[in-house]
Amino acid sequence: MADKVSFTDFGTKRKVRKVKRKRTSTSHIKSEVKATSLPESPVSELIPNLDEFKFPFIEISVTQLNPSLRDSWCEMEVSLQNSGNGSARSITISFDNLESRGKTMIDELEIDSEMLLNFEVKCSSRESAITRMDVFYHTIEGDTFSIVRRDWFPNTNEDTVVFQNEIPPGEEEKANLYTRKEVMSDDFHIICKKCEARSPANFRICGKCGSRLQKRSDRAHDWGSNRKETTGVQDGREMLMQKLRKLGELKDKGMLSDEEFSVAKSKLLK
After folding, report:
1. Which whole number is the average pLDDT over 140-166?
2. What pLDDT score does 252 carry?
3. Is the full-model pTM beyond 0.70?
4. What is the pLDDT of residue 107?
5. Which site in 6, 30, 83, 152 is 20 to 30 Å from 248, CA atoms measured?
6. Number of domain units in the chain
7. With contact defined as beta carbons under 8 Å apart, do 167 and 180 qualify?
8. Is the same domain home to 157 and 260?
9. Are the beta carbons of 213 and 225 closer than 8 angstroms?
């Protein structure tokens, strides 16, 4: 037979020791986090103002001093003026159907400076043909600008302003045939307003901080990752540079009067 087992309560009390943990004040933690976190800067501080961009803008005037005859040298006088807000570097003048001798290059042209070049050109063509003149110049950062002018050579001009427009005299009705051929291809960039990194315009993710620069064009704007906030903004410097190039192209084509050109250029640069 199994023994009976009884439990006796001796009335002992279990002593429980309560340990109080010392709490750190939330205000102290918040102050530390605030001290170590990166300051939030508005987009306007991350992206340079247009006033900080410095671009040259070359205006030219070409005078033919004596008639241009076949296989004979003709004197040319070219006036170059930098009316932009930045220095112009490595200015070069070239022709497609004319041989030249003399100085046709300038190392640098400062703001509001003007320089006069005198050189000679020679045409080997028997009949008068359209000749193209190209002027290239660069910014300090290496951006390229161009001026395109056309005129007829050989000719009997004397003390006459030539190469006034991109469309040669008498070819105004065929203006669409003289569309400018781009000699440089610039890839546009966008700026991440979170880390200020520059990326090509077709990038969707910032390579520096990993934030989403722009939405996917193959998806709806209210679906998937397109619902997230984007951090990419356009590069204001490149926008201004393209507007200046377009203004120069309109000037070369004779589509702007001198007054309209001056007003438009002042608005862009100032």
Report:
1. 92
2. 75
3. no
4. 95
5. 152
6. 2
7. no
8. yes
9. no
The whole-chain average pLDDT of the chain stands at 76
121 with 219, same domain: the answer is: no
> Under the phi-then-psi rule, with left for phi > 0, alpha for psi from -120 to 50, and beta for the rest, what region is 237?
alpha
State mean pLDDT over 157-170: 94
pLDDT score of 191 more than 50: yes
Residue 151: which of 248, 80, 254 has the closest Cα? 254
Residue closest to 178 by CA, chosen among 72, 94, 253, 90: 253
- The Cα 164–Cα 117 span in angstroms is 17
**Tens digits of residue pLDDT in 223-247:** 555 556 666 566 666 677 777 777 7
Those residues whose C-beta lies under 8 Å from the C-beta of residue 36, and which sit 6 or more positions away, are none
Look at residue 4 and tell me if it is in a domain: no
Task: Please choose, from the candidates 158, 153, 146, 110, the residue with its C-alpha nearest in 3D space to the C-alpha of residue 131.
Answer: 153
Identify the bridge partners of residue 102 per DSSP, sorted by sequence position. Answer: 119
Answer whether residue 84 is part of any domain.
yes
